[in-house]
Design goal:
Layout: E1 11-16, H1 20-23, E2 33-37, H2 47-63, E3 68-71, H3 80-85, E4 93-96, H4 102-114, E5 121-126, H5 129-133, H6 135-139, E6 144-149, H7 151-158, H8 170-183, E7 187-189, H9 198-211, E8 215-218, H10 224-230, H11 235-253, E9 259-261, E10 264-266, H12 268-281
Parallel strand pairs: 1-2, 1-8, 2-3, 3-4, 4-5, 5-6, 6-7, 7-8
Antiparallel strand pairs: 9-10
Length: 285
């Protein structure tokens, strides 16, 4: 059976599964993906309630046109299998946090298959040292359809300290972006916990786009529009990309492999970048 894929992930907006006031508004926020969070945002004594809400709201949100993902608890927890077994049919993908190995992906795959969700893809959370180190193996698994990097958990795991410049997570972010490319899946960048700081979110989103991420995790509705804009090529960038591709095609037709575009040498790598911009503009990763 073919695994369902996910579309754009420019903005991935979370809402706690136990906050129905947030869930009621989730479809209207403009996010590419909405996540009903049964993990971090749900206390241990309310997991059963979270599952019930996730099933009920996944149906209503999907009916409103939302792309619905449910974040379950990690595969190593006591709640994981129950989270899977009680999923509703309207969930596009399953978000699994703290994935650390290809072996865990096999465990996840087995539970999903046993629960009769054979076509359900996994939005993989890479947020530990082992997860980042094994990210190529993890994201090459056939069940993986997207990934995210979790900076807060990663730094807690390695025993570091979070800073605004993000230099302490640059290697890990780059590793996840590279692994996602190798695995052929889109990746979403870390959260900005200072959710009222739009300038910081904008800076992080722009940098993440430069690294190769396709979107950003959002924990507040005010972050959604910024993320959508940051990961959508501008009209100027799209126009330039069209011109670069056309210049290259003209040069190729003339029997040369390098084109001159407004005084800039255009060769294969720059053409590939231009083509990527056009794919992103068309809603493809």
């Amino acid at each position: 059976m073919t695994i369902r894929t996910i579309g754009r992930i420019r903005s991935v907006l979370f809402a706690p599964a136990v906050r129905t006031d947030h869930l009621d508004k989730l479809a209207s926020r403009g996010a590419d993906v909405v996540v009903i969070d049964c993990e971090d945002a749900t206390p241990a004594d309310r997991k059963a309630e979270a599952r019930q809400n996730a099933r009920r709201y996944s149906q209503s949100l999907a009916a409103q046109g939302a792309t619905v993902v449910v974040r379950v608890n990690a595969v190593t927890t006591q709640w994981f299998e129950d989270d899977i077994n009680e999923l509703g049919p309207d969930v596009v993908a399953l978000m699994v946090p703290m994935v650390e190995s290809g072996r865990q992906m096999e465990e996840i795959d087995a539970v999903i298959t046993a629960a009769d969700f054979a076509d359900l893809g996994v939005f993989v959370g890479l947020e530990t040292a082992r997860g980042v180190a094994n990210s190529v193996e993890i994201l090459s698994h056939g069940r993986a359809i997207a990934a995210y990097f979790g900076a807060e958990d990663y730094i807690a795991d390695v025993g570091g300290r979070r800073t605004a410049p993000n230099t302490e997570v640059l290697f890990a972010r780059s590793q996840v972006a590279m692994a996602a490319r190798i695995g052929g899946v889109p990746a979403a960048d870390q959260v900005v916990t200072d959710f009222r700081n739009a300038e910081r979110f904008q800076t992080e989103a722009d940098f993440a786009c430069n690294l190769g991420f396709r979107g950003k995790l959002c924990i507040h509705p005010g972050q959604v529009d910024i993320a959508n804009a940051a990961f959508t090529p501008t009209e100027e960038a799209v126009q330039r990309a069209h011109e670069i591709v056309a210049a290259h095609q003209a040069a190729t037709a003339a029997g040369v492999s390098v084109a001159d575009y407004k005084g800039q040498m255009i060769d294969g790598p720059l053409v590939a970048q231009a083509q990527q911009i056009l794919r992103l503009a068309g809603g493809k990763s």
